[in-house]
Amino acid sequence: MAELNRLTAIERDHFAEIVELSLRVTERRHFFSLMQGMMQTLIPHEILVCGADEGAGERIKLGFMSGSRYFREEHFQASCMENAGVVSRLFAEWHVSGEAVVIGRQLNNNGHGAMVDDLESAELRNIVLHGVRGPGRRTLGMYAFSRIPTDCLTHRMGYLVDVAMPHIHAAFVRVMMSEARAAGNGKNPAGRQITPREAEILRWIKEGKTNADIAGILALSPWTVKNHVQTILKKLSAQTRSHAVARAMSMGILNAGE
User: I need a surface site. Which of 55, 136, 177, 209 has the fewest CB within 10 A?
Assistant: First the structure.
């Protein structure tokens, strides 16, 4: 049996590859590929809620990336609601302890029974949450992995996230810096290419509608909607519908209130 706070030989190999790949991340699509690709060998998950300090005294702005059709914008908003959402409350716990928070129904959750129910209600199921601190204990980032396979979720997962956290955060900050530079230069080619019809379809995808649902709402054929969705994915360099919504929100094509 592997020691709690040591990587196995296989995990070390995976970790080394993750570190190397993380250095190549400069765009949000690269980050998504890393998290839904090689990172799955170390921290298997379907949903990642993440955020980093944008500077200028701003609070950490949270967003999510999902490889799961279950997690919708309304679930994200509810789970991250300040002082009330389950992710926000667990993040507040991390602020105090500085240690990874690991919660799942099959674990000894040390008084977090209600949190398990809240995670289920938010379609997160379980969670491994950790943050990043800088000088003066300033919080620089937060990353919460959810919908981890039951057979993989143990308290040791907190250690694996702890090991990977600096590299995850560095990659995410690099993405934010790249996007800030692009915004400052007035570069948003994908955003300019999205047509009004595609933006409308994106809004319905954000609401959790299927292609068939959207076809009925917009009086289009399912085939036409499917073609629009494929075009949207290509324009936004997105790999899934959820990723396209996240990209559209980060680029200002959609906003949380739409």
Answer: 136
